[in-house]
């Protein structure tokens, strides 16, 4: 540890989850997802107490109290405190407000919603607000015993908590990082005005508010200005999150990935077009699959030489819009395969070693999200790819701001543009492919996860030095 202020990290899900085995004993499962992976790097740099929701029965059994002493992958110790929420309130918070509402609004997907706004205000008052209040109460208890600690909130699940902590501890050092896109006041206008204002005002209770890109940072400032909400007193920053380079390169060399890579190499086509995503409407998989089918329609000489591999992780299958989108993906894949036998393989499963193996083998990577806070796939895949693969990247992904000079850009709403981008990527000369691939790898290595974590902690430390 570096001796500086302790850190209280607050996120909906923690770095470790717990279940019960057949004998009723608690077993730990390492947390998944980009946010949890990214935040693990903080544990090695500070003395950390991590506050998260207790979701499973095993987690609820150990919620509250003094917390659980845990170790990160590198052996660093941290303390995990789990907060048990009233089940109905948590369901409203997570399955009505956070994921189907805030996520959809901030990814420009509101038109996909069923009955926009129906029951939302009640879900906000009876679910989102109470769960945020429970998080804030836990933070305030921790600050009572460690008043010098800085608090670091994360993402759209916790928009209200900072203001509640500020009211209970006016001199606390508070930071919040938003990992998804931000839209202007027009985008937010689909929600009740009191909710929109509450989100903006509560976020501005933080000393430091972070986004991945200048685009999202500026959108927040514009949104505040249009709502008449003052940003004075909050430092709003932009730092793109990245990859733990050493950890990811080690994963690419692991036996689990090498086994999958040998399987893929034995059956790979002359050229492989890859997409790795979740079955999330924001990832735009249907349009990507349709574009690949149109490419083969228009360029029949490519048939038999190019194949698409779509590796998709099932996402949020308790939410109707996600269930429907997964079905649409499967229908589109069947349509393309019916026209071009053997040209498309769709796999919907949680098999990360296979995804990493495919990262190493792609010739073209398609990342065409409708909108994304960042999108780590573009960085991860380019880092370990062995074929100087070309990245086709959505102009609406946060990573585009950083990688735009070395990718083939695509407007995520333009179907013909997708076809043209895939053609361009497949036809780039070898020397240009290598130049672009080398540049992306160099960027990821020099702007890695450690650099992101250092920037977040430096911003909080700057506040700390001014607030004894």
Give a structural overview:
The chain has helices at 34-43, 57-61, 87-106, 120-145, 161-168, 185-188, 193-203, 214-227, 245-252, 255-267, 285-298, 320-339, 352-361, 377-384, 398-403, 415-427, 430-446, 449-466, and strands at residues 7-10, 16-20, 26-30, 48-54, 68-71, 77-84, 150-154, 173-177, 208-211, 235-238, 271-278, 306-313, 344-348, 364-367, 390-394, 408-410. Helix 4 (120-145) packs across helix 5 (161-168), helix 10 crosses helix 13 (352-361) and helix 11 packs across helix 16. It has 18 helices and 16 strands. The protein is globular and about 70 Å long. With 468 residues, the protein is an alpha/beta fold. Strands 5-6-4-1-7-8-9-10 form an 8-stranded mixed sheet, with helices on both faces. Strands 13-12-11-14-15-16 form a 6-stranded parallel sheet, with helices on both faces. Strands 2-3 form a two-stranded antiparallel ribbon. The chain folds into 2 domains: 7-241 and 450-466, Rossmann fold, CATH 3.40.50.2000; 245-446, 3-Layer(aba) Sandwich (Rossmann fold), CATH 3.40.50.
CATH architecture of the largest domain: 3-Layer(aba) Sandwich
Briefly note the CATH topology name of the largest domain.
Answer: Rossmann fold
In total, how many beta strands? Answer: 16
Q: What is the CATH first-level class name of the largest domain?
A: Alpha Beta
- Could you report the average pLDDT, rounded to the nearest whole number? 92
Class based on secondary structure composition and strand pairing? alpha/beta
The largest sheet has its strands arranged as 5-6-4-1-7-8-9-10
Q: Total number of helical segments? A: 18
What's the shape? globular
Task: Give the total of domains.
Answer: 2
The residue ranges in which pLDDT falls below 50 over 5 or more consecutive positions are none
Radius of gyration: 22 Å
Task: Report, as a whole number of angstroms, the end-to-end distance.
Answer: 20 Å
Strand content: 15-25%
